[in-house]
Each structure stands twice: as C-alpha cells, then as structure tokens.
Amino acid sequence: MNQVYRDDSVALHTDRYQLNMGEVYWADNVHNRRAVFEVFFRKMPFGNGYAIFAGLERVVRYLQQFRFSDTDLAYLEEEGYNEDYLDFLRTLRFTGTIRSMREGELAFAGEPLMRIEAPLIQCQLIETAILNIVNYQTLIATKASRIKHMIGSDTALEFGTRRAQEMDAAVWGARAAVIGGFDGTANVRAGKMFGIPIAGTHAHAMVQAYRDEYEAFRKYAGTHKNCVFLVDTYDTLRSGVPNAIRVAREFGDRINFVGIRLDSGDLAYLSKKAREMLDEAGFPNAKIIASNDLDEHTILNLKAQGAKIDVWGIGTRLITAWDQPALGAVYKMVAIEDENGRMADTIKISSNPEKITTPGLKKVYRIINRRSGKAEGDYIALEHEKPQDEERLKMFHPVHTHIMKFVTNFEARELHHTIFEDGKLVYELPPLDEIRRFAADNLELLWDEYKRTLNPAEYPVDLSQACWDNKMAIIRKVREDIEQKRG
Length: 487
Ligand SMILES: Nc1ncnc2c1ncn2[C@@H]1O[C@H](COP(=O)(O)OP(=O)(O)OP(=O)(O)O)[C@@H](O)[C@H]1O
Ligand SMILES: O=P(O)(O)OC[C@H]1O[C@H](OP(=O)(O)OP(=O)(O)O)[C@H](O)[C@@H]1O
Ligand SMILES: O=C(O)c1cccnc1
What we know:
With 487 residues, the protein is an alpha/beta fold. The chain is built from 16 helices and 21 strands. The chain has helices at residues 16-27, 56-65, 70-78, 83-90, 120-151, 167-179, 188-194, 204-210, 213-223, 236-251, 267-280, 296-304, 316-319, 432-443, 448-451, 465-486, and strands spanning 34-40, 51-52, 97-100, 106-107, 114-119, 155-158, 184-185, 226-230, 256-262, 287-290, 311-314, 330-337, 343-345, 362-369, 375-382, 392-396, 404-408, 410-414, 417-421, 424-425, 461-463. Strand 16 and strand 17 (404-408) form a beta hairpin. It holds the Pfam family NAPRTase_C. It is an enzyme of class 6 (ligase).
C-alpha cells in the first residue's frame, strides 16, 4: 500500500488513464489542442419514456474547484509522473466552454446532454467526474419522476439516506428526487444544503425504548407540536391506531395531530381500516403515511386496491435506483483541432449502428408543434443549421431512416445553454424549486404515450439531413482510409 494523504481537492477524482493520456498529450505538445466531447446515454433508464437531466449544479461546483493541490502532486510524483508534467498540472484550471441542458430538462437516449469544448487535456481529466455526477443524479431524478407519476398529487417524501450508496449519494440523491417531483426529504443535511423541505416521524426504536406504545406517543406529543405516530410496532389496528387516537384526544389543541405512519403488513387493508377508525374518532384530516420498500409498482398496486394513503415515504428503491443501478452515460469525442489549427470531426465506429457516434459540433432542439403545444421529437443539427427558419422540417429516424415525418408550424427550442465560456461561469444556477417546476412544466410537453411507466412509446430523437450526411461521409472516409492503408 502507498502513503496516505489528506483529501483536499477534487482534481484527482478521475481515472488514472486520464492522467496517463494527459501526460502523452503534454509530452507531445498537443495537450492544448481544442477538443469537443459530448455526454449522452444510449438506453432509456428503467425502460422509461423520458429521463430527467440532473447534476449540472455539482458539475459547476466541481469545475470551479478544479485544481491540483500540493498533496495531489506529491502523490502523483510518488506514482512516477514526470516532474515537469506535474509542474504543468500545478497551474492547470478549467478554461473551456460548456453547453448543457438545464437541470430538469427532459432527456432522451442518443442526444447530447452536455457539450464540453476545451483544451484536449482538460476534456480528458474532467471526464470521469462529470460522468460520475450526471450518471447518478439523472438516474435518481428519473426514478423519482416515475414514482411521482404514480403518486400523483399525494405527497412524496424521500426516506432513503440509510440505504444510499454512501453519504454523497444520499444528499445529492435527495436533491435529484426533488427535481423528479418529490416534495421533501428526511435528510436534514440535504435540507440545509439545498433548502429542501424536511419531514420526519419517529422510528420503532422510540416505542421500544418506552416499551409501552401509549407512553411513547405521549412523550412525543409532550415535546412536539406536529405529531405523526408510527402505529405498527406491536399491533397496528388493536394497539397502534387506538393509542394514537387516545393521545390525540388527550392533547387536543396542544398538538397538531398530523396523522399516523404504517410501515409493515398489508398497507391497503391496514390503511383502509385505519382511515375508518380515524374518521370515526373525529380525525378526518389526520393523514396516513406509508413506507416499506415502496416503488412505482407497489404504489400503482396499492392505489388499485383503494389504499387510503395520503403521504408516501420512499427510501431504498428510489435512492439506489433499485431496478437499474447505472444510467450508462458516456463521454465521446466529436471533434478535435488538427495540426493546422482547423477543427476536424471525429467518429467512433461500431458494428452496432446504434453505437456509432455522431461527429461534429451540434445543437439539440425540441420541436414543439404550435397547434398541439406538444413535442414532436428532438432534432440534432449541425452547429450552423437553423431549423427554426424551415417551413417544413423533415424528421427521420437516425438508424431506420424510412421512419420519417414532416413537421410544419413548429417552434425549435434549443436545449443547450452556455454554462462556462472560456472557463468563466456565465450561467446563473437556478434555485431548486425553480428546477423542480421546470421539470414538471417540461412533462406537459409530452403526450401521455411517452409518460406511461410500462412500455411507453419511443420518443423520436432525429438527426438533420446535414448531420446524417456528414456522419455517413465520415464513416465512408474512415473505411476508405483503412482499405488504402491495408494496400
Ligand atoms: N396490499 C399490498 N399490495 C401489494 N404490496 C403490498 C401491500 N402491502 C404491502 N405491500 C408491499 O409488500 C412488501 C411486504 O414486505 P414484507 O413481506 O417484508 O412484509 P412486512 O410487512 O414488511 O413484514 P415485517 O413485519 O417483517 O416488516 C413491501 O414491499 C410492501 O410495500
Ligand atoms: O423501506 P424504504 O423505502 O427503504 O423506506 C425507509 C425505511 O426506513 C425505515 O425503516 P428501518 O427498518 O430502517 O427503521 P424503522 O422502521 O425502525 O424506522 C422506515 O421505517 C422505512 O421502512
Ligand atoms: O421520518 C420517517 O418516518 C423516516 C425517515 C427515514 C426513514 N424512514 C422513516
């Protein structure tokens, strides 16, 4: 094992191969050539019809802090990196330009979420952290949106911290959940950091600590105005709910009896019975909160059974993205400056046509039909193109090109915004409630066919003719070059 150093920077939050490539570029003096990379994912997470982009705020914070500390450099020296290379890294800062979707934007497979344009070595060194952040936060925001879709107008609370994949995931996951439509979190630190409303009841431990359930509820009521009693420690209907009602009656106006929480058993049956008991006791406004391994599937099922649940506490299955642990977003080069100072488009070829990258500097537009107010699809065009000037826009599937349509009377809304310009932050990070509203408004652009959680329709993400022609010409050129070199 190597020596251990103080963790005082984020610059080494990268893979070793990025530093290795950086050294190659630096030694060959090509490290400052302008390069362009794009972040995108290839498959819709959870089989959902849309994803919700999240992670930009943390990417911004990371890039603002990006610098190698003395201990970083000492560590890299020990790892055998060239001293002059390390001297170069010592003063390295992010000086690039980033165009990105805003957090809360709807995102789809195959389209660039972010575009990073910077000296080659910088593009490379920041790849790992950017993917780390965007992959996780976009995944959780999307999972939260699926769950919130089922919860509808009831309250959705994020309860996952104890089961999250470590502390960072818990707080940034709570924030992503809010972007996806959640109303609050149990994580107090996330509340402090992001201004998320915090909510909380109590655990079985408190009932066990007093042994007597009635006594425990009374103690809670004695110290808290807002009371939610957890009623399933011993027997929900015979003990828990009656004790909650008894304490609520005894304390009267001295407390605000918010309701009860169910955390085990048949949540449909118990919630209906508890609702009857609370109503009969004169507490029709007391809420029923449910938790216990909930996700969009159990919630749909519970609603179908007529469960009387007002507030849903969702932990493990949200914060760990239970059914799909990774989004799989990648970071691919689309252009690089050549030895003559001109930008040249680049491509990565694959035997799978869906995996061939799309070369060149591009923009992404959402094509919105002015008559219906709904999105027709997303349209990826080359930088210089102006789709909004077209009378009749041809949209076709980028792989199965015979699937096509013409759109008229549309708005072409650009999805990327400039975040950094030559290293300077030019974007004002919006407050979280604005991002949450933005995500909810965006969902209004989608037909219901794209929003159902089971087998949604595939939303079109198309290339412009010029973009497609450019891609085909580059594929042909690469093939010809290979043939020529083979002789
Ligand atoms: N009426 C229902 N329909 C469908 N799923 C339900 C219903 N009630 C509860 N569930 C879900 O079924 C699962 C039940 O979990 P489990 O079998 O561990 O029982 P439990 O009630 O948690 O038992 P324990 O007393 O050990 O906590 C949970 O995911 C819960 O959300
Ligand atoms: O089920 P989740 O979706 O992950 O939601 C969070 C869970 O965390 C708590 O359980 P835990 O057993 O850890 O503690 P408690 O029941 O004693 O509070 C809570 O009661 C929920 O069941
Ligand atoms: O407040 C609660 O009820 C809560 C918080 C975290 C996890 N489970 C429950």
